[in-house]
Design brief:
alpha/beta; 11 helices; 31% helix; globular
């Protein structure tokens, strides 16, 4: 019998609500949850988000990370975008995350202070989904993944489980997919273990939760998250509740001793999840951009995470931007290692992609 989570939930120090966000029932419900957690709630005088953050970078970061902003997603934010190789489409419930990950990719993707913005107009977000049925290119039209149906990824710009006890947005989305009689799958990945509110939802098997995991020795790069062992237990509980589940091993860091560290991690996962059918695995190597490197070094000036150019190579995206990935020799060694270890420890698992 797997024991439930005992992890402490993240509680923002303040919630800033725009007037338009309070016109939505979902927005009012978020405010009610925040007040029940003794969060200081401020209604802003206009829909312009004014933060009044300190000039000192460290204080600015700390205060921003402790702030939840309740806003209305404009049409540009509601417009679904492709999100290969994970899923057909990205659906955003929020932007930003309360965790303190030293490699955070959001550092180069989102502008401004790292506050978490949550969207009050959930009905308008849900209304965008039906038009995209069968229109994706990752699973909708894939010979190997077509059985997943049209897939929607909810954790591109946030960790939706980390904030669900305040927002209720992930729970509402899971319930929506559970009631949606269509060939669809909702997907989300998380570094948290607070799954208790999700276990009794009528999900109809249309949601796949993945736990994002890394070796225990790398926990210093994942501040404010649940321990990896707790994430694996949470994933097991979700599987026992009928959810589809998977692992996201990310970001894979080729630091000294990485073979031993990841071998232990995969063995640990195998002990908890080895008998689960249709377990998926996504393998994502560490990468960064010049912009994200600059932001991360401001947020975490004492970090020991290697952001140097040793065993790195420059890669250009389809949009012409630059990112730094591991060189070909390192990539080959990593990929061969993970293929062998997963085959040995999780032989029934399905590797969705390597990147």
């Amino acid at each position: 019998m797997v024991s439930p989570s005992s992890s402490r939930l993240w509680v923002p120090r303040r919630l800033l609500a725009t007037p338009s966000s309070l016109l939505w029932d979902h927005g009012e419900q978020i405010v009610a949850r925040a007040r029940a957690l003794d969060v200081a709630v401020t209604t802003l005088p206009s829909d312009r988000l004014r933060l009044d953050l300190p000039d000192d970078p460290r204080q600015n970061y700390a205060q921003a990370k402790a702030t939840l902003a309740l806003v209305v997603a404009p049409p540009s934010k509601r417009r679904l975008q492709p999100i290969a190789p994970s899923a057909d489409w990205r659906v955003d419930l929020a932007e930003g995350c309360p965790a303190h990950c030293g490699y955070c990719y959001l550092a180069g993707s989102l502008k401004g202070p790292p506050i978490t913005r949550v969207y009050a107009n959930l009905p308008e977000i849900l209304a965008e989904l039906p038009a995209h049925l069968g229109q994706g290119t990752v699973t909708s039209r894939s010979a190997t993944r077509a059985h997943e149906g049209t897939t929607f990824e909810a954790s591109c710009y946030t960790d939706p489980l980390a904030i669900d006890h305040v927002t209720g947005s992930l729970s509402a989305l899971i319930a929506h997919f559970g009631a949606w009689e269509a060939d669809v799958q909702l997907r989300f990945t998380t570094k948290f273990d607070a799954v208790e509110p999700l276990l009794a939802l009528d999900h109809a098997g249309r949601t796949r939760m993945r736990a994002s995991i890394n070796p225990a020795g790398y926990a210093r790069f994942e501040g404010g998250t649940s321990p990896v062992a707790a994430r694996l237990v949470a994933l097991r509980r979700m599987a026992d509740a009928g959810y589809k589940v998977g692992l996201t091993i990310a970001p894979i860091i080729a630091a000294e001793g990485w073979r031993e560290a990841y071998a232990e991690l995969i063995a640990q996962a195998g002990q908890v999840l080895g008998d689960i059918p249709d377990l998926t695995i996504e393998l994502i190597t560490h990468r960064y951009t010049p912009g994200s490197k600059a932001v991360l070094q401001t947020w975490y000036p004492g970090s020991s995470l290697d952001l140097g150019m040793a065993n790195r190579t420059e890669k250009r995206t389809k949009f012409g931007s630059v990112k730094y990935v591991y060189d070909a020799d390192t990539m080959r060694a990593l990929r061969a290692f993970f293929a062998d270890e997963i085959a040995a420890r999780l032989p029934e698992a399905r590797i969705l992609y390597w990147t």
